[in-house]
Write a structure and sequence with these properties.
With 355 residues, the protein is an alpha+beta fold. The protein has three domains: 2-81, 3-Layer(aba) Sandwich (Rossmann fold), CATH 3.40.50; 109-166, ATP-grasp fold, A domain (Dna Ligase, domain 1, 2-Layer Sandwich); 172-354, ATP-grasp fold, B domain (D-amino Acid Aminotransferase, Chain A, domain 1, 2-Layer Sandwich). Helix content is 30%, strand content 26%. It has eleven helices and 17 strands. The strands form three sheets. Strands 9, 10, 11, 12, 13, 14, 15, 16 and 17 form a nine-stranded antiparallel beta sheet that branches. Strands 3-2-1-4 form a four-stranded mixed beta sheet, with helices on both faces. A four-stranded antiparallel beta sheet has the order 5-8-6-7, with helices on both faces. A hairpin with a 6-residue loop joins strand 2 (25-29) and strand 3 (36-38). Helix 1 (10-20) packs across helix 9 (270-279). It starts with a strand and ends with a helix. The mean pLDDT is 96. Bound molecules: adenosine-5'-triphosphate (ATP) and magnesium ion (MG). Adenosine-5'-triphosphate binds at residues 108, 131, 133, 138-141, 144, 165, 167-168, 173, 196, 199, 238, 249-250.
Length: 355
């Protein structure tokens, strides 16, 4: 089996790693440069696109924000790409929010911010407590503007291809990662608690102790979204826990940073699960081994990463460290969820001091 991944970053690298344990060859294609890498190799191989497509049994993507070039246009219309529809829709926050509304998946109240009067209307309706989000291209907090009643009116560049949401006073951020295969079968991991700083995920803790009904409600929401899009593979749903309910924040049609703990914390990690779903391999519900945490390394140097990860599991992506750049992560475990939370926060604080 050959799986062609659009995107050549760390998510594709970890898919390739998981593929090697399932006898699945993963090719990673950089959609900007057209460079191809086989498996976990860092060397670039040269193929013309037709040969590449002929070689691929199935296509998938590790990012939803793809360049609008001839290569991507051809890939998006290729056969055997079961995630293409979801990718197209989710890459734009406007149809994404519309889909959540249609499916009655609760999410933050919102408006299409396509004019100055729409922004005025939102400011009044949400009493200035709002979040502006560019429809396309946002990630790690880029393309997002948090406003409160004391913030001056956002500049005019926030009017147009933008949506505006009510700012939710959430207790915490949670996410659910699950997968659907082409028979419509779905499996899910337990809810994960996520801590962000400046819009970037820094720490995940799983499984979260939540009432069964909350886990079921998250699963139902994600199942509805995957089914509506006839999606195949792993998908993540980021949520706000308001205390009374879960509100969907955004959908990611791919393996997700908040699912990295599954590499150490389950018998089938999200990368293996994605490949199983795509290639029609059996997809049992993953077994969870106990409390696990994932701490992101943002702009950390390799030698520091080795120090910080002593006694834990380091994943290093081989990228040049730059401020704000995800260069690796550390998976940690502890039989006590409280002790794990403490250790993970201590590590995060050490890392934040280096920022
Ligand atoms: P990602 O990198 O996960 O794709 P993103 O930058 O594209 O993230 P969001 O996840 O929508 O965008 O927003 C980034 C963060 O901003 C959220 O994790 C949350 O902390 C905060 N945020 C977003 N929307 C709201 C909201 N409606 N109310 C309060 N906080 C919000
Ligand atoms: Mg997000």
């Amino acid at each position: 089996m050959h799986v062609l991944v659009i995107g050549a970053g760390q998510l594709s690298l970890m898919l390739a790693e998981a593929g090697s344990r399932l006898g699945i060859q993963v090719d990673r294609l950089d959609p900007f440069s057209g460079d191809l890498r086989h498996g976990t190799s860092l060397d670039v191989a040269n193929y013309d696109l037709d040969t590449l497509l002929a070689r691929a049994d199935i296509l998938t993507a590790e990012i939803e924000h793809l360049p609008d070039n001839a290569l991507v246009q051809k890939l998006m219309s290729a056969p055997r790409f079961p995630g293409a529809r979801a990718l197209r829709l989710i890459a734009d926050r406007l149809p994404q929010k519309q889909l959540l509304d249609e499916l009655e998946v609760p999410s933050a109240p919102w408006l299409n911010c396509d004019s100055a009067s729409a922004l005025d209307q939102a400011t009044e309706r949400f009493n200035g407590e709002m979040v502006l989000k560019r429809r396309r291209g946002g990630y790690d907090g880029r393309g997002t503007l948090l406003c409160d009643s004391d913030t001056p009116r956002p500049g005019d560049d926030w009017i147009g291809d933008t949506i505006v949401e009510q700012r939710i006073p959430f207790l915490r951020e949670l996410s659910i990662v699950g997968a659907r295969n082409n028979k419509g079968e779905c499996v899910f991991y337990p809810l994960t608690e996520n801590l962000h700083r400046n819009g970037i995920l820094r720490l995940s803790l799983a499984p979260v102790a939540v009432p069964e009904v909350m886990q079921r409600s998250a699963e139902d929401s994600l199942r509805k979204i995957m089914s509506a899009l006839d999606y195949v593979g792993v998908m993540a749903l980021e949520c706000f826990d308001t205390g009374d309910q879960l509100l969907a924040n955004e959908v990611a049609p791919r393996v997700h940073n908040s699912g990295h703990w599954t590499q150490a914390g389950t018998d089938i990690c999200q990368f293996a699960l994605h490949l199983r779903a795509l290639t029609g391999l059996p997809m049992p519900t993953p077994t969870v081994f106990g409390p696990h945490a994932m701490v992101n390394l943002i702009g950390t140097s390799f030698t520091d990463a080795l120090q910080y990860s002593a006694g834990h599991r380091l994943h290093w992506y081989g990228k040049e460290p730059r401020p704000g750049r995800k260069v690796g992560h550390i998976n940690m475990e502890n039989h006590s969820a409280d002790a794990l939370r403490q250790h993970a926060h201590a590590l995060l604080n050490e890392l934040l001091e280096q920022d």
